[in-house]
Amino acid sequence: MHILVLGATGFLGRHVTERLRALPDARVLLAGRSRAADVTVDLAADRPQEMAAALAEAAPDAVVNCAGATGGDAVTLAEVNARGPAALCAALRTAAPGARLVHLGSAAEYGPTGPGLRVTESAPTRPAGPYGATKLAGTVAVTASGLDAVVLRVGNPVGPGAPATGLPGRVAALLAEAGDDPGATLRLGDLSAHRDFVDAGDVARAAVLAVTAARPLPPVLNIGGGDARPVRDLVRCLADAAGFRGRIAEAGGGSARSARVSWQCSDITAAREALGWSPAHRLEESLAALWAAARPRERAGEEVPAR
Q1: In the CATH scheme, what is the code of domain 2-299?
Q2: Of 57, 100, 221, 240, which has the fewest CB atoms closer than 10 Å, so is most exposed?
Q3: Which residues are catalytic?
Q4: What is the predicted pLDDT for the residue at 251?
Q5: What is the mean pLDDT of residues 69-93?
Q6: Cα 284 to Cα 2, 39, 287, 290, 292, distances in angstroms
């Protein structure tokens, strides 16, 4: 089975690629802009005809698109998150129309929901900003493509390799910088929002199950922890994992998205029914693994827990 992965060098892409490579009789090819990639493509810039030629040479049985931008201006977000999936689908219709496409979407596509609600895949999509809007545009392109495709709408992923552009990775970096100083202060924004955190390894497992599922899948499946936790819990748990003895100060304000979307939680029933998937890791485990990978080497005396 030939499996092509786009965005394999990103946070989730690395976890997905590692899982796919463990499949028996699978040949995993990496696609991207780097010359080191097996297939050279640029989702944000290549014309579909150029992309189709590269994809045809790889002859994939399945394609997993982990590529995406979480930050940057609206143009950058649109090029990668909206234009990229649309161009990929157009190329696949020419080059590999029988290949299964697994695309990583985002729970940010739903936008604001009422407190206490778990949103299903049929819930209205009202993204609160350019990121969610461009991810939704990518989802629409995939689900309307006519391909054998599924969008995995991912909650807030946590785990080893989390980038500093997101809160878990940024807090881990601040904790590493603070070290053992009991007088250190972590200055953060408002942490009262609730989010549905999901382990990056669990996301990767869902992607593998989607690639290998024998029957057609629903167009969209929620992949989350299935519960909403205060962001404050995440910061406190990560600080505990790091043995942080200083002070955590909430300066108020926070991100604009947190202010607009105070509650986010996904109903993961459909993924359980379609894939036999459910999250296997608690948030505390995910944060311990994140810290084990992020802490300064001189403080890393013990082994990293196996995942």
Answers
A1: 3.40.50.720
A2: 57
A3: 131
A4: 80
A5: 96
A6: 35, 37, 5, 10, 12
